[in-house]
Amino acid sequence: MLSPIREIFPPEKYPDLLVGLAAADDAAVYQLNPQQAIVSTVDFFPPVVDDPYDFGAIAAANALSDIYAMGGQVLFAINLVAFPDNLDPAILREILRGGAEKVAEAGGVIAGGHSVKDKEPKYGLAVTGLIDPARVRTKGGARPGDMLVLTKPLGVGVVTTALKRGLTQPEDVAAAVASMKKLNREAAAAAQLAQAHAMTDITGFGLLGHAHEMAHLGQVAFRFDLDKLPFLPGALRYGEAGAFPGGMGSNMNYFAPWVTFAGVSELYQDMLWTPETSGGLLVALDPTQVTTFLTHCPDGVIVGEVIFGEAGHLTIDDEFLPVPN
Question: Does the global pTM surpass 0.85?
Answer without folding.
Answer: yes
